[in-house]
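#struct-pred
JK: can someone run the complex with calcium ion? inputs below
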Amino acid sequence: MGLKIPQPNENPNMRGRYRPWRVAMVIMSTTCALLPCRRVLTDDQVTTSVESTGKRPNVVVILTDDLGFSDLGCYGSEIETPHLDALASDGLRFSQFYNTAKCHSSRVSLLTGQYCIAAGDTAMSHAVTSAEVLGNGGYFTAMTGKWHLKREPTDFGFNRYFGHLSGACNFFKGDKTFRLNGDGWQVPDSGFYTTVANVDFSLKFLKDARNSGKPWYLYVAFNAPHAPLHALPADYAKYKGKYDEGWDVVRAARVAKQKNIGLLPKDLKASPRPEHLPAWKTMETWRQRYEANRMTTLAAMIDRVDQEVGRLVEDLRANGELDNTLILFVSDNGACPYDRRKPLLDVEPTNGDIALADSTGWSWARNSPFRYYKQNQFEGGIATPAIVHWPAGLKTASGEIVHEPAHLIDVLPTLADIARCEIPQSWSDRQLRPVSGVSLKPVFDGDSLGRRTPIHLLFSDDRGLRDGEWKAVSFRREAWELYNIAKDRTELNNLAEAEPERLQKMIDTWTEMTKTVLHASPKSYATTIDAKLPHRHQEWTNFDGGPGPASGKPNRLKGRRGPANRIRARKNTKLTIVDGELRLEFSGDDPGIAMDLRGRDMPVGPYRLTFRLQGGTKGGGELFYTTDLKTILPKGERIEFSVDADGKWHDIDLRLPTKQRIYQLRLDVGEGVSKAIVSGLTLLDSAGKRVITWAQPKNDK
Ligand SMILES: [Ca+2]
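RT: done, C-alpha cells with the ligand placed:
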C-alpha cells in the first residue's frame, strides 16, 4: 500500500510570514554553527530582529491541569466562570481542540509545536520553545506555574519564572521544587495558595515586561484542578451542598447546556454512564457524601482559576493592553479518573493537611458528553476547552464557535505567525526536528484552516489518529476502533468491522507517523492486543469497596507506602479480625497493635480515640503517637489509661491533645500472657467527626 502523509505545505490557507514548510526544510539540513545559539535569553541579550508594520500583540497562554471539556460555563458547566465566559463571548472558542491527554506531553507539544516524542520528550532536545522563538524575535518572556519537564523554564527561553517544577503539589504548602528565576524559593508557612500565587507573580512579571518596552509573552500554567483537591475556604463554601444531586443529574444538565449554546449538535447522543460507574441513586449514603464533597472541591478550584484569570485580565485592561493581547486558554488533558487516596469522610479540604482524590464518576460528568478520561485518546481524554480572545486580531464574529479540529501542536506556529517571529533553524546542543502544527491564524481571520495532515495521538499505550472526519482509536493497546467523528463525536458506533480497509489505512498512517514523524521506539507501535471489553482500568474507583482502600494502588506520602487502614500486630501479639472486632492474644512481653496513618490525608489534631475493650491486663494501658514522619514508635507522645480486665466491656475515650497531624499510633492494653477484644476502634477529629474506624464491618456506614 502506498502510504502518503500529507505535509503542512499542502495547507492552501497558510499565510503570513511564517511558512512551516520552509522552516522545516531548513531545520532538517542545518547545523548549529549558522546562528548564534542562546539558551538563556536575558533582557539585554534579546534583540528586536523583526521589522514590523503594526504593533505586535502581547501573548498570554493559560494552561489548566486536568480540566474537563465541560468544566467551564461556556462549555456547559454550572461552575461559575464569568471571566472566561466573557473572553469566549468576546472572542472565539473551539469545539474540537485537542491536547495529548496527559500532563507532560501536552506541555511539550504546546511549547514546541511538535508531538511530544518527536520533540525529545521532557528534555525537548529536538525542539525550540515558544519562549525561545518569541524571545529571539524581541519579546519579553515570562512563565508562572507548573513546569513538569526537564531542567527549568529559564533554561528554555523564559526571562522570568515563578512556580513548581513538579507535576503536582500541595496547593497550600507547595513543595521543594519551587523556583523564582532559577533560584530555589521557600513557600511561606501561611497565606499561600498556588493558583493565586501564579497570578501574583504574573502581575509582577508584567510590570518588568512593560518596563522593558518590548511586546511580551506570558505563559501561566495553573496546577488546578489537578489533585490533591484543595480549595480556599471561601471558594469551597460557595459550592458546598451544590452537588448532592449527583453526577447523573449534573452530566445531563451539562449536555443540555452544551447543545443550547451551540457547542454541540442538537441531535448529538451523549455517551451513556459506563458500566464501571454506578447510578448516583444506588450508592450508599456515605459514598454520596464523599463524592459530592469531591466535586464541591473541584468546582471551587475551577472557580478560583476563573477569578485569577479575571484578575489578570483586569490588569491588562487597566494598562490598556487588552485589545492587542492574544489570550489563549486550554487544558492539558481531560478530567482525571485515578482514585489514588482512601475515602476521607466528612472533612473540608480547605487547608494543607487535608486533601481529597480525583473521582472517576465526576470525571465522567466533567468530560461531558464524551467517553473516558485523562490518558485515553478517546474524546474524553483529548478534548479541551479552547478560548481565544484578541479584539485587535480576530476577524470572527464575537462568540464564534469554531468546529474545525486543532491541536496543541498548533500553538507555537500560531504564536510565531502572529508575533512575526521566525522559528530558529538551529540551536546549540539540540538537533531540531520540524514542527508538526500549523498556524491557526486563518481561523482568526474567519477562514477555514483546511488541515490536511492527520492529527497523531499517542500517550503510552493509548493511541489514535484523527484524519478529517474519521478517527481510529485504541484503548491501552487493545484492538483499534473506528469512528466517524462528524456523525458520532461521542464514539458510540464502532465501525471497525464495517470499514476494515479504511481502518487499516489509518492504522498504517498512524504507524508510519509514529516512526517517521515521532521517531518513536518500536515499543510505541507494537502490535495491538485483543480487546478485553468493557474497557477497565485498575485505578478507576472501586465502588465495591467500603470506606477502606479505594483502589489497587497504595497511597503514597513522602515515598512511604502501605495500606492506609493497616493494623500491625506487634511482637508477642496475635491479631484476628472477626465481625469488625479485633481479637488479641498476647503471648509475652510488650504486646499490642500499631496503626499506620502515614499514607493518608489527615486533619490536624486534637483528636479522640474511642473503642470498647474487654479483657487485657489490669493496670496501665498505653497509647503512643507520632506527630512527624521521622519519629519512630514508641518514641513520640504517650498517654496512659486504666484497664480493668474484669471480663466486662468498658468504653474507653482517649484525648490526643496535639494540634499537629498524627502519623502513627500504638495501642497497648495488656502485658504478658492474656487476651483482649477491641471493638469499634475509631479516631475522631477535633469536631468529633469520624476520621477512621479500624476493622469496620463492610456494611457499616
Ligand atoms: Ca494534567
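RT: quick notes.
Residues 65-66, 103, 226, 332-333 surround calcium ion (CB under 6 Å).
The domain at 8-217+225-385+400-513 is CATH 3.40.720.10 (Alkaline Phosphatase, subunit A).
JK: thanks, will look after standup
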